[in-house]
Amino acid sequence: MKRPSNHELHGKLKSASETAKAGCFRLVEPAPIYADLTDLGILPEDLPDLIPKIVSEIGPQDYKGKKPPEKSYEVSIKGCELYAFKWVSKELGCMMYFKFAL
User: Fold this and answer.
1) How far is it, in rounded angstroms, from Cα 61 to Cα 29?
2) Domains and CATH numbers, the chain
């Protein structure tokens, strides 16, 4: 079986949700994310409340990453596995792409 399994993805999403609710997250490349937020009419200071909400919308069926997950080449998270998801967000009312590493 190719990784990640639905069971593994469920666990990663649960961990991401708990981490986001605790406010323990950071943006690796903030400039393009802030540009996307501006396009959506979202202020950067809204992220601590927004990220847990959007993570709760995602399910294993929304996984669009590689199997097995790619490893990051960004210096601050080099070698961490990347989990990418695409879904229609009820919170934001549009198609979203969200990628994270734990």
Assistant:
1) 26
2) 6-100 (3.30.2310)
